[in-house]
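User: Okay, second chain of the day. Same drill as before: sequence in, structure tokens out.
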Amino acid sequence: MYSFYMRYCKKTPNKTVFTEGMNRIGRIYIPHQLKNRLGIVDEILVQLDTDKKYLPPGGYITSLKINKEYDACVRFSENLNELGEIGYVYVRREVLDALGVDNQLAMRIVPYDITRQKEGALIETAG
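Assistant: Same drill. Structure tokens below.
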């Protein structure tokens, strides 16, 4: 499992945008309602693994499938049986190779409290 610390970037009318400093994963667009339900303020922790069973419980957990491949990265979209709150996620090929991902990816999003150096409040939103 790999974890990525992401910071607030900007707000759109419907979503809040978070970015990762080294661009190993692309911007994550989180709907305002989900952001409020999870208790997210300015920072999130995004965890990626090959299957949902390897991720700790809590937060927003979803499974993704390959949508489109590019030279440097792969675009994933949420599976049809998921809530579909996030939509697309771009992941660099180096991360996918290190994880050993074929065509499925699991993702967990939780709030991150930098002052306590640990994850924030958790709410299970996906099955």
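Residues 2-119 form a domain with the OB fold (Dihydrolipoamide Acetyltransferase, E2P) fold (CATH 2.40.50).

User: Thanks, on to the next one.
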